[in-house]
User: Which sequence fits this backbone?
């Protein structure tokens, strides 16, 4: 009997051309599919909750596949981790009912974005944070972040090349925290447009550099004009932290007030 | 006139065969020397506070060299960082009096050691922590750590191949902290024998696995028998955090009670 397996996957995106399978390129989806195939001699259709770009990381990407193969979920975790490269780790496996779909069943996501604000880069965090060697006004950035909360048409916070028609999204929560040279942004919403988190991060950086006024965020969103927002922050600072499949889970996460700057990586 | 330049250097040791120059191998000392030479057409004798092994990292290695070249320290930092690979960063440069020597003037060091205690490894922290997929009793490890404090003959906590005669060292402070799956150890002493920090870490792990009794640390040290201590923990978890050149500085550091598990990397 066919079972519906849900995988929660962490990966370091640095050496991958993103999540989605592409001919001739090493991608996370491709490597997981190939690993499964070489282990079980069986092809799977592995569906992710969404794409991540080259260099973007995941603490908790979710993917599902249906298979006739019968293996206890905890054994599948062990077996896959023994065969996958060390920069991709299966954190969890569950068997779901037949209707579960990693993308269509998702009701929200949390992303993390790390900004390393120092004249000298860190040799340890270079793959995990966007280096900004200029002074940033953190309090202005915090103030500007408030402007993103709620339901808005984020048409102007999307990179071109996306076929999406409905560009209205709700941001439930956005928090900034500073610890020494690191600024962490955590944002939770019901969905995100292509590059939306990176454009929000870039806009907050441009506010910190006093190129954009913190008070103008609402006007910039309403303008639906991509050129009025900030630049698109680099891929290396972005982590897909969590994908939600129930509204309750989102509420629990947004009510937590602390954001542990690097502790999230643990 | 010749000046005595002191450099504070951070590096990710993963892709280097340690600090010390070795023929045919990429080492941190070698890369810094070669970078200086290619920039200033001048050879330097770069002396480090001590060697670090392949895969070991530094947050604050200290090295000094004497040179006729006259360049303001902050300019030298910028110039070197523009030319060095991104996994080596000059954090600071000072001009010292003629007597200063990175190794002989040092009065103490602090090392950090990270243990990642989880059945599933982290794709982000694999180069920065030693993965222990077995249950560790953290409270026993904390208790055992106390046994290392003070002045002892650490002959049994040294790997062979070291020409050192005096094996008495003082550990001023040793702290453990646990945050989710990460255990961080911070140890400060007046000096450390070859592999001593990694053998202490390995011994604490073996205590956590209940292979060694927490109460036996004193006896094991006094036995001066390498075979009675724990295994040598892997190089990837080790960071040289700080080198001290005054007793006051050490006292200030050991009096701080908090150890921020990953925050130290910031």
Assistant:
């Amino acid at each position: 009997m066919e079972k519906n397996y849900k995988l929660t996957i962490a990966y370091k995106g640095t050496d991958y051309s993103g999540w989605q399978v592409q001919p001739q390129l090493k991608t996370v989806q491709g490597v997981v599919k190939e690993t499964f195939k070489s282990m079980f001699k069986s092809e799977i259709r592995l569906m992710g909750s969404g794409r991540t770009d080259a260099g973007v990381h995941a603490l908790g990407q979710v993917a599902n596949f249906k298979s006739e193969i019968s293996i206890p979920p905890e054994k599948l975790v062990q077996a896959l981790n023994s065969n996958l490269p060390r920069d991709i780790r299966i954190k969890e496996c569950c068997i779901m009912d037949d209707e579960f779909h990693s993308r269509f069943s998702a009701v929200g996501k949390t992303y993390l974005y790390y900004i390393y604000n120092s004249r000298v880069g860190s040799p340890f965090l270079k793959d995990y944070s966007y280096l900004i060697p200029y002074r940033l006004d953190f309090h202005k950035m915090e103030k500007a972040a408030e402007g993103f909360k709620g339901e808005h048409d984020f048409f102007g916070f999307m990179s071109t090349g996306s076929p999406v028609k409905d560009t209205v999204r709700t941001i439930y929560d956005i928090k900034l925290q500073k610890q020494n040279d690191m600024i962490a942004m955590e944002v939770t919403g019901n969905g995100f447009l292509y590059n939306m988190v990176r454009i929000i991060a870039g806009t907050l950086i441009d506010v910190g550099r006093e190129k954009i006024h913190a008070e103008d965020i609402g006007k910039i969103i309403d303008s639906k004009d991509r050129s009025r927002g900030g630049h698109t922050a680099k891929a290396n600072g972005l982590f897909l932290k969590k994908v939600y499949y129930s509204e309750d889970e989102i509420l629990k996460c947004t009510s937590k007030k602390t954001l542990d700057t690097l502790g999230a990586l643990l």
